[in-house]
Each structure stands twice: as structure tokens, then as C-alpha cells.
Design a protein that fits this description.
Number of domains: 1
Number of strands: 0
Distance between the termini: 31 Å
Strand content: under 5%
Oligomer: single chain
Shape: globular
Largest sheet: none
Structural class: mainly alpha
Number of helices: 10
Length: 249
Amino acid sequence: MSIDPNLFLPFLAIFAAATLQSATGVGFGIIAGPILLAFLDDASAIQISIVLNLLIAALLAPSVWSAFDRRIMSGLLTGVAIGSISGFALFIFLALVYLKFLAGLFVLASLFMLLFGNRLMTRKQQEAPAKGELIGVGIFGGVMGSSLAMPGPVPAAWMSMIGLDKDTIRATILTMFLFAYSVALLLQVIMVGFSPDTMQHCLVYAGPTVAGILVGRYLSTRISERVFRYSLVVVLVITSVALFSSIIG
């Protein structure tokens, strides 16, 4: 009996993406998003990714609540709120190909920052980053979150660059996601709406998402700082390649 690739590949991609996001804090929108866009070929893929990302954040954030960095959260969330509104405007008025191009530029900038930026280890551990810097990082995350359901790459790369450990990054990102995806979902519901097909896809894909969450939680305690950093680099490379390839294709 043959397996329908139109069903199997999205399920596999969503399971793998949920596993990566559960283990590291980023990866779902980056991996599952392009796959859903390829198979569904419309903006409903972004809505589905928002819903499934919110499911992951809602299930994982309570368990990491005590570990997120409170010094930077308020600034990040302020930026996310501003960026989410701007990103939703881009979602409405820009063609999908331009959204992908902008997202690709943001991701490449994040990759460059992570690979070549000087880690700010001279910054005192108790000293919080500047408010404007935090808001700027949050704005990038908010724009990508509400336009492409990918708020994580820029904030995660920035946190790694300034020297936060993997557990703090994972907890901070997941907590930020709870806010970012709630705002993105609210904007989608109020301004666009969800079709019955989109809601059905969300229900169908919830299964592999939850399975990936469970596997990722198991792996999260077994990933070293070096593996986490390499995983983040790989995720950013895959993201940029997928985005620009989808534009060319």
C-alpha cells in the first residue's frame, strides 16, 4: 500500500519541527512553514502555523516559566506588539513573494550576527541590554511573527550572541511566543477570519505537533550548549535557503 506524500510529508515535517522547537525553542515556523506553503500554496499555511505554534507555546511555557530572563522580556514584548501590527499590515498588503524576501533578509542578518558578531561577554551578567535594543529585536520578531509565523530566528540569534545559555534562551523564546502568537492569531481572527478547511487542517496537524512536543522535551535536557548553538545555525541556514528557493521556484 503506497503512502500519499501529500499527507505523509507535512505530517513528518510538522513532527520534526515541533520536536526541534520543543527542544531548542525555535524551528517550527522555519521548517513547517515552508512545507505547508508548498503543499497548501496559499496564506492559510501561515494561519495554520500560527495556531500550531501557539499550541506548542501554551503547552511548554508553563514548565519553563521560572527560567526566562525577566530583564529583557518587557522590552521584547513591547517590540513584538509594535512589530506584530506592522507585520500584519505587510501580510495584508504585500504579495507573499515579497514577504518571503524580507524574511530571508532578516534571517540572513540573524545568521551573520550569530556567526560573526562579537559575543558581548564583557557585559555584566546583572546588566540588562538597552531598552531600545530590546525593542528593536522584538520589532523584528513581531514583524516576522504576524507576517510569516516566524518570530523566533532574530531574537534567538541575538540572545545567543549576547551570551545567554540555552535553557534561558529556550524559556525566554517560548514565553515570548505565547504573547507573539496570541497577538498574531487575534489579528488574523478579527481582520481575516479562518475558513473551515483551515480549522480542519489545524485539528489534523495537532496530533504530530503534540507528539513532537513530547519527544523534544525529552531531548531538551540532553542537548549541550555547543549542539544548541550549531542547531541554531543550521535552522537559520535552512530557513534562508527555503525562503529564497521558494521565491526562485
